[in-house]
Amino acid sequence: MSRGPEGAPGRRGTAHVRLRWLMVVVAMGLSLFGVRAFQLQGLDPKAYAAQAEAAGAVTAVLPARRGEIVDRKGGALAESVDGDMLVADPAQTKDHAAQIARILADDIDVDYFDTLTRLEKPKSRFQYLQRRVPSTVATAVVKKLNKAGLAGVYTKPDPLRTYPAKDVAANLVGVQAQGRDDKGKITGGAGLESAFDHLLSGKDGKETYEVGDGNRIPLGDNSTVKPVDGKDLKLTIDRDLQWYVQRVLRNAVESSRSDSGSAVVMDTKTGQVLSLADYPTFDPNDTSTADKSDLGSRALQDVYEPGSVSKVLTLSSLLDEGRLTPETKLVVPPQLDIGDRTIHDWFDHPAIHLTTTGVIARSSNIGTALASRQLSDEDMWQHLRSFGLGTRTEVGMPGETRGLLPDWHGWQPINHATIAFGQGVSVNTLQMASAVNTIANGGTYVSPSLIEGSATTDSGETVGTDHTTSHRVISAKAASQMAQMMEMVPNPETGTAPGAQVNGYRVSGKTGTAQRVGADGKGYDGTFTVSFAGFAPADKPRFTVYVVVQNPRNGGGGGSIGGPAFSKIQTYLLQRYGVAPTGTKSAALPIDW
């Protein structure tokens, strides 16, 4: 055997020694593992089980971002901003659950007992405490808990719904739903937020991962399903116009000491709703003080008898059938007896001689009832139905009423007469605005739309400007004749609403004053609905505006309350959209003979 210097062993001998030592180390390691396994499995099974139980899978929601609701120009009416959810690890909170629950109940207004149950949840490592909390509030309460030595409550991102325009279009936009019941029905929502909840909400994702001793296991099993954000909902509403219309409406309601009001602005040709306002309204950022009756849209949900505005529908139908002309002469008696009932005009008079135009300008119930006798019950019903009465507008808002147009088979002579001048029939504000818009649109009814493009409600109804329909109701000639007749209404020399004039423009309009049905539905209660509907320019209509006020207490009517509000809104519209006067002379039709 060879040796190195001074008799030292060679390299081969050194390798054998190292190998022996390595085998010894491996054997010792295996022995230690065996001893530990024996200890865990045999000598200390309870400790092992406790550690196994401490490790488990947690599933956390990855919230989808809710789609925005925006106006026709993209201005936000409802949007989601940064927020947080508060979550808890009951393994850490159960020993101090009562203290934590009390702080959370005081600081973020959660239910104390429900929170206590969640904080003490056995065998759970993850519990939701509150969704959509403002980030500053969530961070502050967690810091407060940690400072008090109360661990186990954390924050996770969770977008928060906010309404930057405050009360602007609030009755349309509504408020985000609080959740769904066990049948999947939305709870706590209102307006478009409720009607299009599935579209807006998207679909939450989820993340599942393993935890042990309160910590996430880095190399443990985990899986992620990404959230699908909600889609935006674009409205036909003009946010700035909506703000203005709401302020004008509020002034009309408050100055006349009325209960409520609504107003609609429509694009005459397209049927797009540029403004749909209600008063009273509310701020959806804080509904704690809002009256429940203010959360929906009265313009779509409430029904009322339209009164004299409906006369333009009846007389337009007669013009269309060639039964009369704007100059047809009528003798209007001081009262009209039909069976055991008597019809009066709003003003006392002897027998007077009015033209058909005069019946509109002076708003004669008797004159309208007499003229309507040239239409059969069925013909008048069919015409009013074609104008949209008795059917929903189907713009996508929840709770919309269809109004009431009684079936003609059951009409008595008194029903024919009163329905002709707008009593005994009921409408909602958008429905009646769409009917008057038919005259502005040359005799063609165009279905109103509130959603731009196409969208499907939670109930499966597809709506929007992509689905607008139209049909002819009266001839273009009859519509033009009625538009000229309606010009006599704001004329200070001939009509009942001089306050509805718009400086420099030709205006067509009609007042309405109708008795209101009492709460018991058994008769009129002595209060009134007053209104004004019209369009401008009269000879080339661009916008239709309809203002309705309920139960004024200052003695005013459709001309003195609705007329000035109409004038302000129409003036703003024509200027905002740059509509020039036509430069033509106003119609000058005879009102008497």
UniProtKB/TrEMBL annotation:
UniProt cross-references to InterPro entries, sorted A to Z = Beta-lactam/transpept (IPR050515), Beta-lactam/transpept-like (IPR012338), PBP_dimer (IPR005311), PBP_dimer_sf (IPR036138), PCN-bd_Tpept (IPR001460)
- Coiled-coil residue windows: none
> What does UniProt give as the signal peptide span?
none
- This protein's UniProt keywords: Cell cycle, Cell division, Membrane, Transmembrane, Transmembrane helix
Which GO biological process entries does UniProt record here?
cell division; cell wall organization
Record's keyword annotation contains Cell cycle? yes
| Top-level taxon of the source organism | Bacteria
Q: Name one GO molecular function term.
A: penicillin binding
TM ranges: 21-38
User: Domain named Penicillin-binding protein dimerisation: which ranges?
Assistant: 62-217
Subcellular localization, per the record?
Membrane
State the family it belongs to. Answer: Belongs to the transpeptidase family.
Write down what this protein is called.
Answer: Cell division protein
Q: Source species, please?
A: Marmoricola endophyticus
